[in-house]
């Protein structure tokens, strides 16, 4: 079975982004490219937590609303949210109104601040779990790896919530800690080059 499809420009892309034009833009410009910005890393791991049980398209379509609701995912600000903020967010129809997930973001913001103090940055911590090229997986159905299981375990140990190995693996795929673009996908070599030029924090 072919792992790619031909996009509207005739170029091959990963099959998963055939579902909607929104996926194509996300796939071409974000997914898999290495990220070392702490705010983006925090945002992504929070949004992956919100995605649990839902489709990524649901979250992607609401991403700007999430950013507005959570102060641009500035974890220094989110860590100061209180019960009034939780109630405000539960009333916000622009996001996923799930108390457990909302409270997890606030909790994780405090954990992120602790991590920056201990490790220097979120990026410095997360990039320890990068999957080297030799270990890049080539099976599309994988939902966890040894790296994602180890990262999930360490995050939970540090008090983070909604960071199971499947959620963490999706985060790793998106933030470039593994190049999981399909063989033949137009972005696979682009991401490989970006990862080669990337300076790990």
Automatic annotation (TrEMBL):
The record's section on InterPro entries has: Adenine_glyco (IPR005019), DNA-3mA_glycosylase (IPR052891), DNA_glycosylase (IPR011257)
Report the Pfam families cross-referenced here: Adenine_glyco
Output one GO MF annotation.
Answer: metal ion binding
Annotated keywords:
Metal-binding, Zinc
SUPFAM superfamilies tied to this protein: DNA-glycosylase
Signal peptide interval: none
Look up the record and give one Gene Ontology term from the biological process aspect.
base-excision repair
Positions annotated to bind Zn(2+): 14, 27, 181, 185
Name the domain of life. Answer: Bacteria
Q: What is this protein called?
A: DNA-3-methyladenine glycosylase I
State the species of origin. Answer: Kordiimonas lacus
Taxonomic path: Bacteria, Pseudomonadati, Pseudomonadota, Alphaproteobacteria, Kordiimonadales
